[in-house]
Write a structure and sequence with these properties.
heterodimer, A: mainly alpha, Four Helix Bundle (Hemerythrin (Met), subunit A), 6 helices, 73% helix, 3% strand, B: 149 residues, alpha+beta, eight-stranded antiparallel beta sheet, globular
Chain lengths: 139, 149
């Protein structure tokens, strides 16, 4: 390297940090969260319906809390990919992205409101399809 | 300022830095090479671009100074009057990691003020001061009237 470029080259890197490591998107987090929602619904279904013990009640509350948190994570992660990653050219290939996103958000809310195995399974499937679309745009 | 003094200041901190990541676009792009005014003794004026040691991680971060000592900012849900601190924001709207995450930054975290871009050639020039631009940034800088309530 010439002396001139050696002198010009910065000595230090400074970071203009973003919360999404820029340009790096991954639907995995959303899939994991949707899976968690489904698992919580499953665990809730296993709790005794009558005469719950103290431990059962505690587990019930915890599972509901985790279910709602993870449904919220699904909403957040899907929204970030939808608003920040998808570009008009992706929309040309997949014109239903908006509709799919909207439905996932609705489904996630439904999963927050209810303990519903059917809704949880639908959410998981919808997020999986969303992720498949995401990865197909990377090819 | 004597030449020896200038030399000492240049020795104290980095004065040529490269930008990484995108929270300062379009003012600064990743890959830009900047000159710093190193080791300033106080916060520069509002709208300046500064390099600080990020609270918590200690990594060097480049952000815009949205508010300085004496200004009132909305930190989360409450108004805070800044002491010898600054409120730093990225230009890039909602995605920047900045004072909204780590709060006001103390003076001793200040590394320098970025004042000149010397690379790439087509964008060589002074780095202008400007208002922190995102809507959220504007919303988070409170008017002084609000504190009195």
């Amino acid at each position: 390297m010439s002396l001139v470029t050696h002198w010009l080259k910065p000595t230090t890197t400074v970071y203009a940090h973003c919360d999404v490591p820029c340009g790096i998107y991954d639907p995995h987090q959303a899939e994991l969260a949707a899976r968690t929602v489904a698992r919580m619904v499953e665990l809730l279904g296993q709790l005794p319906k009558e005469n719950p013990t103290e431990a059962d009640r505690q587990k019930f509350v915890r599972c509901v809390a985790v279910k709602e948190q993870h449904a919220e994570i699904v909403k957040h992660e899907i929204q970030v990919i939808w608003s920040d990653y998808f570009k008009p050219e992706h929309l040309e290939r997949y014109p239903d992205i908006h509709d799919r996103t909207w439905k996932i958000l609705k489904l996630a809310s439904k999963n927050k409101q209810n303990i519903d195995a059917q809704a949880a399974a639908e959410l998981e499937a919808a997020v999986k399809e969303f992720a498949d679309i995401f990865w197909s745009t990377k090819k | 300022m004597s030449i020896a003094d200038t030399w000492r200041r240049l020795r104290r901190g980095p004065w040529r830095v490269a930008v990484a990541e995108e929270s300062m676009t379009p003012a600064l792009e990743p890959g830009d090479w900047l000159l710093l005014d190193p080791a300033p003794r106080r916060w520069p004026r509002r709208g300046s671009v500064v390099v600080v040691r990020q609270p918590g991680t200690g990594q060097l971060a480049i952000k815009r100074l949205a508010a300085g000592p004496g200004d009132v900012v909305l930190a989360g849900t409450e108004y805070v009057k800044l002491g010898d601190e600054a409120w730093l924001l990225g230009d890039g709207g909602g995605h920047s990691v900045d004072s909204r995450h780590y709060g006001p930054v103390p003076l001793d975290a200040l590394v320098g003020r970025a004042w000149f871009r010397y690379w790439p050639p087509r964008r060589i020039g002074l780095i202008p001061r400007r208002r922190a631009s995102s809507a959220r940034a504007r919303a988070s800088i409170a008017s002084k009237g609000k504190l009195r309530k």
